[in-house]
């Protein structure tokens, strides 16, 4: 972690408990000329189920293609994460590297290669060196179990802090634990902002129900955050369920604890997603954008993302400028139903504009005070229907430009 | 023009000839506390036809709504442009201001208010002061004819240089002139990057054919430029044809000179569009992005804009970094058909990657040399079909952040 700590970082890494049936290890594969652990190997007990969501990019990495294929089987015995080399856009050589990693891990664990999930993040266009990966994997397998914090550090690239979260739920009369680590949107050219998130639970969950719950959680968390509108070729979130808690396996909505599990998974994903935004490159403000009164939830989501991705909105927040005109602009460009004359906008708790006009007697003082803080809320009501959505982003600052432009590869 | 001159500015304002039937004037309406002309009044002889394209924003300014309505009649006697106040998001008071301006100009000229076209750019959310507009209009009407350069300056807000272009065509055996002025993407919070472009020709052209030709020209020019992906509530391009050249009026593709006129209009629009990019906020590089081999032209256009709008691509160019991985990322996130393993990418004339891999023996030296210049070319071939498109943008620099964030309204 060489960059200055994000001012939005939490005070400390949380105390994450062990998850029965999950044993993380880290090792130095030395994918870059650095002296830190950059390979993470998580052993999973037999019987572990898995679900996942991956990037919508049309040019996904071979790791993403491998995981998509392996997810169709719904079972997992290992996760291998490489940091420092994304192995993306590397053609057949990149595919060979993923296959070699899966084969090597399978030999160690006595399982099928398709039971091994692989994710990589870092430089693009350079095939992952198979010799380093295999040596790193062997070292990780021989290493003692590590802490979740050590694993969260090892999967990071230019993140400025390790990211983890935990929650619990009562399922079938038993307390199950859900733990997650994630790495996000720190990047140094020519690296990319890959989001890799991994969730581990001791609950027993069928692959199909786990997939349903993860997809639902994803829609309200990872799909609702944006740092700069760019989409990695490698984004991957995987959820593993070992079943060691001994509950009757969750397989449908009618099962005891199904709702609690889904709620806990959604909560965990939201915690992890917010941590990614809090480490957005150059971020100094954490911004929540809530859109209400849209024609549909989908329309609200698109409008909210249009605001969140607007460079003019993001720079205005960076400048602590109550520039609601830019919010109007971003609503207008979203291409969704909107009526200027029914639009209302607030910053924090202060209504700034409504019915196509700035509010009578508008006093900027409380808005200016809100914008001086680091937690910013923008509310937009379209006055058209019941559709609503909330998304999160960060401001756009000189820090972003410095990280991404003041550099020569 | 108070900001430092864009390093991409042309050496001088071009020598623009008068256009028969068009008389520009400027005056000080003092929409802001500045001592400069900020109201432009262009008188047009009777018989002038008009066509226009306006913003796709769902929250357009009252000026845009007024022009859309007036365009349905196809005739024009005057253009009024206000700089310093966009009059957008101002509700009924904004509409009243536009109506008052059109009525006042109509009295001066003895025409209908619907013959008067109005455009405004500047601060948002503040109704245009009718008294200042009327006094300014009276002053402009009383003033002597001004030069095109004076008009180009008067329509500007935070542009760092005035923008104009000229071309000619042979139509029906006569040389017709097409002259244009435009203001673009300089902005200061809480102002917005409104693009206002005005084209004047002495050719005789039916409103319908003028609209067809302008729409075609727009598709390959103004619709192919982006500075920061944000869309103004006020973007407007209007074309006026006085008919003073005496050619048989152009009304269809089979008329003599129709092709020449269309080509000239397209050329003029492209010149004007490029000038807007060259004054992009903080721009230090003019970037051409050419996409070929897509499944369709539309698909190519969307992919090209995805690259042009990517903050990571734009910061890489600012940093003179041959970061083709970010181009792959931007192709992938466009959501259009793309195959990683058939993708080829070049910077300048140098092929960097093809068939899913960096080219064998890749030498970055010529690419680095190309990126040190101020005119950058990125080529992407998808290897899928015949679809192609070219768009233009600028880099994303500290200058953009300074202009848009280092400010408190």
How does this model look, in words?
The structure is a homodimer of 409-residue chains. By secondary structure, chain A is an alpha+beta fold. Chain A has two domains: 22-278, L-amino peptidase D-ALA esterase/amidase (4-Layer Sandwich), CATH 3.60.70.12; 286-405, Ubiquitin-like (UB roll) (Roll), CATH 3.10.20.340. Chain A has eleven helices and 16 strands. In chain A, the strands form three sheets. A seven-stranded mixed β-sheet of chain A has the order 9-16-11-15-12-13-14, sandwiched between helices. In chain A, strands 3-10-8-7-6 form a five-stranded mixed β-sheet, sandwiched between helices. In chain A, strands 1-2-4-5 form a four-stranded mixed β-sheet, sandwiched between helices. In chain A, helix 7 packs across helix 9. Residues 187-192 of chain A have low confidence and may be disordered. At the A-B interface, helix 2, helix 8, helix 9, strand 14 and helix 11 of A face helix 2, helix 8, helix 9, strand 14 and helix 11 of B.
| CATH topology (fold) name of the largest domain in chain A | L-amino peptidase D-ALA esterase/amidase
Mean pLDDT of chain A: 92
Strand order of the largest sheet of chain A: 9-16-11-15-12-13-14
The H-level CATH homologous superfamily of the largest domain in chain A, spelled out, is L-amino peptidase D-ALA esterase/amidase
Q: What overall form of chain A do the CA principal axes indicate?
A: globular
- Report how far the terminal alpha carbons of chain A are from each other: 19 Å
Oligomer: homodimer
Number of continuous helical runs of chain A: 11
SSE series of chain A: EEEHEHEHHEEEHEEHEHHHEEEHEEH
Q: How much helix, percentage-wise, in residues of chain A?
A: 25-40%
